[in-house]
Design goal:
This protein has 9 helices and 18 strands. Helix 4 packs across helix 5. The termini are far apart. It folds into 3 domains: 172 residues, Homing Intron 3 (I-Ppo) Encoded Endonuclease, Chain A; 71 residues, Orthogonal Bundle (Arc Repressor Mutant, subunit A); 66 residues, Winged helix-like DNA-binding domain superfamily/Winged helix DNA-binding domain (Arc Repressor Mutant, subunit A), CATH 1.10.10. It is of the alpha+beta class.
Length: 325
């Protein structure tokens, strides 16, 4: 198990409903609007999140049509260093207008299908009775105060033993001091605003979701609450380097890799995306796209292959049927 919290992808063929992305309702499934997002997003009593069909005009004045779909959950492993295991935390991640939201699903399910409460109140916890964070049905959820949540952790021996007979709030603070990592908040220029002893403390003071802060500090999100975040207490945060790493990471994950060859089959260059390849020769990427899909044999005086290609390829047959670009 990794020591630090990390996001994981939903495993295939999993028995938990939150992993089911089919638009077909499950047996006995009910849907209700997510508070504050009526008509846009809904949550079911199984913890599934649905985006409703809608039309929306973007910043360029173009009307975008969003189809109805089930959103894949964001699932985090929340480690417990004391007992060397982890629990699952499931979040709904979606956007409306120009703003993105990162909401804990168990709180939404409890609010909509058990009993409403103040969703912004950080002193209220929603616990899974059986300890399984993937079981999000109402019958498995329980509302608890910080004191009750702390007592449960102590009773299950998931915190340092010497805190067992102390005040739960003091135990929680001491445990955080033992396991937490310092985290610093930065403005858009990379200047440090403040350092906090933990993400939980930063969340408490700023009313920003602690998991969202953690995701930003680990580079999985650009910012959280409009700020950049990084572990430690460095006086400056290199925003440009951070954003460039994110751009490269996004290209590596989402881009179509392309290899460029000369007409003799010698590898010239490799690119993370079609746009990068097109930019290198000052052309439009549509011709390169057609070439890697086999519609044409070459484009702009070069041969193009999808992915990371070999140093040299055989081009005898390709050269005979090559068209002028």
């Amino acid at each position: 198990m990794k020591k630090d919290s990390q996001i994981i992808m939903p495993p295939k063929n999993n028995k938990y409903p939150c992993h089911n992305n089919s638009l077909t309702d499950l047996k006995a499934e009910q849907w209700k609007d997510i508070p504050g997002f009526d008509g846009y997003y809904r949550v079911s009593n199984f913890g599934r999140i649905k985006r409703m069909k809608r039309e929306q005009m973007n910043s360029r004045g173009v009307v975008m049509v969003y189809k109805e779909r089930i959103l894949a959950p964001r699932i985090y492993l929340a480690p417990n260093h004391y007992v060397s295991d982890f629990t699952y935390q499931v979040f709904a991640h979606f956007s409306l207008g120009a703003k993105r939201y990162h909401l804990p699903v168990r709180r939404l399910v409890y609010y909509c299908f058990v009993k409403p409460f103040d969703l912004k109140d950080k002193t209220i916890s929603i616990l899974c009775k059986n300890g399984n964070g993937l079981d999000l049905q109402p019958r498995n959820l329980k509302l608890a105060s910080l004191t009750e949540a702390s007592k449960r952790v102590l009773s299950e021996n998931r915190r340092i033993p010497e805190f067992k007979n102390t005040d739960p709030h003091k135990a929680a603070r001491a445990s955080i001091k033992y396991t937490a990592k310092q985290i610093s908040q930065y403005n858009h220029k990379g200047k440090k605003i403040k350092t906090y002893p933990s993400t939980m403390e930063a969340s408490r003071q700023l009313n920003i979701n602690n998991s969202a802060i953690s995701a930003a500090a680990r580079g999985r999100e650009r910012t959280s609450g409009g700020y950049f975040w990084n572990y430690g207490n460095a006086t400056h945060f290199d925003v440009e380097t951070f954003l460039e790493k994110r751009r490269i990471g996004y290209k590596e994950k989402k881009g179509t890799k392309v290899t460029q060859y000369d007409l003799n089959g010698n590898r010239v260059a490799q690119f993370l995306t079609l746009k990068d390849a097109a930019k290198s020769i000052g052309k439009d990427y549509t011709g390169i796209s057609a070439a890697i899909r086999g519609i044409i044999s070459g484009a702009y005086g070069y041969i193009w292959k999808r992915g990371w290609g070999k140093e040299k390829i055989t081009v005898k047959k390709i050269a005979r049927r090559k068209r002028k670009s």
